[in-house]
Amino acid sequence: MIEQIHNHRNSEITYRGIWFDDIGFELFSEKFQKSKQENPCTVCGKKTNNSLGVLVGRGGATIVHPEDIEKAEDGGYMGWFAVGNECIKKVPKEFWVTGQTN
Ligand SMILES: [Zn+2]
C-alpha cells in the first residue's frame, strides 16, 4: 500500500506515499461538498474537531508521508486536509498529521 511515488516534475525524486484509490478514499467527495458540518472530514463530510488529517499530493490523488513533503512538491502538492477519526483508520499511522484543534 505504501509506495515510492515519483515526483511529477522530476521522476528521479520519489516520496513515500499512498494512492487514494488503493485505500478506497474519495477525497472531496459529494458528501464532503454537501456537508454543512463544522470542519468536515474531507472524505465523508462528518464533523471533525480538526485534530487529525493527511497531507495531500498530486492534485488530490496521493497521501504524502510527513517526512517527505519537500520531495512531494511537484506543483500538485496541496497541503493538509482534515480527516475524521473513523476514516483515518484506513491510513497507516505514520501518515497521520496533527491539525489545529478548536
Ligand atoms: Zn470521515
Beta-strand content bin:
15-25%
Indicate the structural class. mainly beta
What is the terminal-to-terminal distance? 32 Å
Biggest sheet statistics: 6 strands, antiparallel
* Ligands bound, unique: zinc ion
Mean pLDDT: 94
What does this molecule look like?
The protein is 9% helix and 25% strand. The chain is built from 2 helices and 6 strands. It has helices at residues 30-34, 69-72, and strands at residues 3-6, 14-19, 52-57, 62-64, 79-82, 97-98. Strands 1, 2, 3, 4, 5 and 6 form a 6-stranded antiparallel sheet that branches. A hairpin with a 7-residue loop joins strand 1 (3-6) and strand 2 (14-19). The protein starts with a strand and ends with a strand. Bound molecules: zinc ion. The site of zinc ion has 7 residues, from loops.
Brief account:
The protein is built from two helices and six strands, in the order ββαββαββ.
Please describe the topology of this protein.
Blueprint: E1 3-6, E2 14-19, H1 30-34, E3 52-57, E4 62-64, H2 69-72, E5 79-82, E6 97-98
Antiparallel strand pairs: 1-2, 2-4, 3-4, 3-5, 3-6
Bound molecules: zinc ion.
Features of the shown structure:
2 helices; 102 residues; mainly beta; elongated; single chain; 6-stranded antiparallel β-sheet; 6 strands; binds zinc ion
